[in-house]
Design goal:
Length: about 400
C-alpha cells in the first residue's frame, strides 16, 4: 500500500538535496566552529554563510540570527529571557498560541509573577487588534506581546505589521511565532517592526533539531542557556553544523521555488475544499482555513459526525493526517484552538481534521482521502442502522 502524507504542518519530509547537503557536510566538515584551526574555521564559515542567507531573506543583519535546536527552544528563550533579563512585567497573548509559547508564558506567570492578559479571538479565530491597543493603553507595565503569525491548526494569518506598529506606538516588545510562515512566505523585518521571531527547519523540508531565533539587536536580549560564547553568547553549546547546512539548503530551495510551490499547494487546497464539500455532505471548514487569506498549507475541516478514531482509521487506510496540532493530537480533549472556534454543540457532535499540504501533495492524494472518508462514513451509517435494528 502506497502511503499518503497529509500532515505537513506537523513536519515535512526531507528533500533529497537537503539530505545530500547534510551528508556531504558530515563527511567533510566535522570541525567545531569555535576551534581556531582550519577545521573549525571551515565549519564557522558554513554557519556564517547560512546566517547571512537567513538575514538576507528577512532583511535584517546576520548578528540578529541565533541558531537554536527548534521552534520550541526559540520561543522559550525569547519569552523567558524577556522576563528574566529585560524586566517584562506583563505579557499579552492569545489562547491560539502553540503550547511552547503558552506554556512558557504560564511558567513566567507562576514562577515570576508576570501579569498575563489574553485576547480572546472571535469565532473565526481572528484577533481584533483594537483589543491589543486597548490593553496596551490600560497599563504602564513593561509589556511583551506574543501573537503568532499563522495558526498551525486553522491557518489564520495575523497582520504582524499592524500588530508591530501598535506595539511600537505603546513601547511594548513584540514577539511573533513565525514557525508556520518562515520559508513559506516573504518576510521583511526591515518593514515589519517585530522584535523577536522563530523558525524551525523541519517545517520546510529541512531536518529536525535545528531552527533559529530572530532577535532584534536593539532589544538587548540575553541568552538563557549558559556556557561557552557561541552564538554571540546568546545560546551556549556547539552548533549543529550539519543541521544548519540542511536548514540553509532547505531555505534556499523554498525561496527559489516559493511562487511555484505556493501556487501548486493553493491549487491542491482549493481542490480539497471542492471535493470534500461535494462528497462529504455537512462538512464545514474551521477558522479562515478555507479562505484565500489563510495559510495555504493548512485546511481545517469539521466532519459532521463524532468519530474520535478517525485518525487511526485513516492511518489504517494508509493516510497520515492529524486531528489538531501534533503535540495535542494524542490528547483526548479538544485543543484550545478548537475550543475557541467551535460551538459546544459542534465539539460534542463533530470531528475536526487538519489536512496539511506540501509541494509534494497531489490531487490523487486528495482523491484517496475523500474516498477513505466516504468509506468510513458509510461504515458509520451501516453500524448505526444495524444498532437501530438490534
Ligand atoms: N510553533 C508553531 C506554530 C508550530 O507549529 C510548532 C510545531 O508544530 C512549533 C512552534 C514548535 O516547533 P518545533 O517542532 O521545532 O519545536
Amino acid at each position: 500500500m502506497d502511503k499518503i502524507y497529509l500532515d505537513n504542518a506537523a513536519t515535512t519530509p526531507l528533500s533529497e538535496e537537503v539530505i545530500d547537503a547534510m551528508v556531504g557536510i558530515m563527511k567533510t566538515n566535522f570541525g567545531n566552529p569555535s576551534s581556531t584551526h582550519s577545521f573549525g574555521q571551515e565549519a564557522k564559515i558554513l554557519l556564517e554563510n547560512v546566517r547571512r542567507q537567513i538575514a538576507d531573506y528577512l532583511h535584517v543583519t546576520p548578528a540578529e540570527i541565533i541558531f537554536t535546536s527548534c521552534g520550541t527552544e526559540s520561543n522559550n528563550m525569547i519569552i523567558k529571557s524577556c522576563v528574566e533579563h529585560l524586566g517584562i512585567e506583563r505579557i499579552i497573548s492569545s489562547p491560539l498560541e502553540h503550547k511552547c509559547v503558552s506554556e512558557s508564558i504560564l511558567e513566567m506567570k507562576n514562577r515570576k509573577g508576570v501579569e498575563v492578559n489574553y485576547i480572546r479571538p472571535d469565532e473565526k479565530g481572528d484577533i481584533d487588534l483594537s483589543k491589543l491597543e486597548e490593553l496596551l493603553k490600560a497599563s504602564d507595565k513593561k509589556t511583551l506581546v506574543s501573537l503568532m503569525h499563522a495558526n498551525n491548526e486553522i491557518g489564520n494569518i495575523m497582520d504582524i505589521k499592524k500588530a508591530a506598529e501598535i506595539c511600537k506606538a505603546h513601547n511594548a516588545l513584540f514577539h511573533s511565532d513565525t514557525v508556520q510562515t518562515m520559508a513559506h512566505m516573504d518576510l521583511d523585518f526591515s518593514d515589519v517592526a517585530v522584535d523577536f521571531a522563530s523558525c524551525s527547519a523541519h517545517k520546510f523540508h529541512g531536518p529536525k533539531g535545528v531552527g533559529f531565533a530572530f532577535i532584534r539587536k536593539s532589544t538587548g536580549l540575553k541568552g538563557i542557556i549558559t556556557g561557552g560564547p557561541q552564538e554571540r553568547s546568546l545560546r551556549a553549546g556547539t552548533e549543529n553544523v550539519a543541521g544548519i547546512a540542511g536548514l540553509g539548503k532547505a531555505l534556499e530551495l523554498s525561496l527559489d521555488n516559493m511562487e511555484v510551490y505556493a501556487g501548486h499547494i493553493q491549487e491542491i487546497k482549493d481542490y480539497a475544499i471542492e471535493r470534500l464539500s461535494m462528497d462529504i455532505p455537512g462538512i464545514k471548514f474551521n477558522g479562515r482555513s478555507a479562505q484565500k487569506n489563510s495559510l495555504y498549507t493548512v485546511l481545517s475541516a469539521l466532519l459532521p459526525y463524532k468519530n474520535p478514531l478517525i485518525g487511526l482509521q485513516l492511518d489504517m487506510k494508509g493516510i497520515a493526517i492529524s486531528q489538531g496540532s501534533a503535540c495535542s493530537s494524542g490528547a483526548s480533549k479538544p485543543s484550545m484552538v478548537m475550543m475557541m472556534v467551535l460551538s459546544e454543540d459542534e465539539m460534542d457532535s463533530c470531528t475536526p481534521l487538519r489536512i496539511s499540504f506540501s509541494h509534494l501533495t497531489t490531487k490523487e492524494d486528495i482523491d484517496a482521502l475523500v474516498n477513505a472518508l466516504k468509506e468510513i462514513s458509510d461504515d458509520l451509517v451501516i453500524e448505526k442502522t444495524n444498532a437501530e435494528h438490534r
